[in-house]
Specification:
- The chain has two helices and eight strands.
- Helix content is 12%, strand content 41%.
- The chain has helices at 110-115, 119-127; strands at residues 9-17, 24-32, 44-48, 56-60, 64-69, 83-89, 95-101, 104-107.
- The termini are close together.
Amino acid sequence: MSLPKPGTEVTVTTEHKMITIDDVKYHEITGTVLTSPKWLKAGEFAVSNSDHPNGFSVIHISNVVDIHDTDGREFKFTTDASVKVWSVTGSTGNTYSVTREYGVYKCTCPGFSFRQTCKHVKDIMSKD
């Protein structure tokens, strides 16, 4: 998955099915991808949105039709909600869990909580 990194200016198009399957609404949000708050669920990301009372919108990847940056580059993403978990041993001997859900990798190590990436995730991604 190649969701844009925090700080990237993007336009996200989402699709929402209404009461009947034939009634579909599309929304387009242009804003900056925000560092995801810890309370977001897997498959969600936040984009600044001056039209929203909170100043940002939470977007679930399953509703996304298209994501592209200001240069027109399209980001590839997956709506696969399957969860895969790996147990990894850190350099100090601690055991951490690396998970992949909606194509997004996360790790329980302290470094990941600060940087949103770590060597454990990079190692799993290179093998996965």
